[in-house]
């Protein structure tokens, strides 16, 4: 698992790690049942406190993204599929909002923006 953390970021370390794990799950880089590293191993890999990783895992479990099984480990959970789908939509909405704000600041009309999006969507 490739996690990039930055001390220069405004977001706390645990938030950066949590968001990157969620993104990986939402992008299906991790699927239901995939094991996550142990808290200690993950903390060692990232050179952060085990308390930081414990908080990340606790938050992700509360949000329904992972499940912990005593003695077995921590695994990706798709138990709440609607939550996952809503999170995907929210991710796209955030990116679209940034795009719209940029377009407005550049005086690009809604129609022109829609035409650009149609072309780009069809290219892939």
**End-to-end C-alpha gap:** 26 Å
Overall body shape = elongated
What is the helix tally? 5
Q: How is the main sheet built?
A: 3 strands, antiparallel
Structural class: mainly alpha
Order of helices and strands: HEHHEEHH
Fraction of residues in helices? 55-70%
Adjacency order of strands in the biggest sheet: 1-3-2
Mean pLDDT reading: 90
Q: Superfamily at the CATH H level of the largest domain?
A: Winged helix-like DNA-binding domain superfamily/Winged helix DNA-binding domain
Overview of the molecule:
The structure is a single chain. The chain is mainly α. It folds into 2 domains: 13-76, Arc Repressor Mutant, subunit A (Orthogonal Bundle), CATH 1.10.10; 81-123. The chain contains 5 helices and 3 strands, in the order αβααββαα. The chain has a 3-stranded antiparallel β-sheet with strand order 1-3-2. Helix 1 (13-26) crosses helix 3. The model has no long low-confidence stretch (mean pLDDT 90).
Q: What can be said about this structure in brief?
A:
The chain is mainly alpha-helical.
Summary tags:
single chain; 124 residues; mainly alpha; 3 strands
């Amino acid at each position: 698992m490739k996690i990039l953390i930055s001390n220069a970021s405004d977001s706390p370390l645990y938030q950066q790690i949590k968001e990157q794990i969620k993104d990986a799950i939402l992008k299906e880089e991790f699927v239901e049942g995939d094991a996550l590293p142990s808290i200690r191993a993950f903390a060692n890999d990232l050179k952060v406190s085990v308390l930081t990783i414990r908080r990340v895992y606790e938050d992700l479990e509360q949000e329904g993204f992972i499940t912990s099984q005593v003695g077995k480990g921590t695994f990706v959970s798709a138990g709440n599929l609607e939550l996952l789908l809503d999170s995907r939509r929210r991710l796209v909405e955030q990116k679209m909002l940034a795009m719209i704000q940029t377009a407005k600041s550049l005086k690009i009309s809604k129609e022109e923006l829609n035409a650009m999006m149609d072309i780009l969507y069809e290219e892939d």
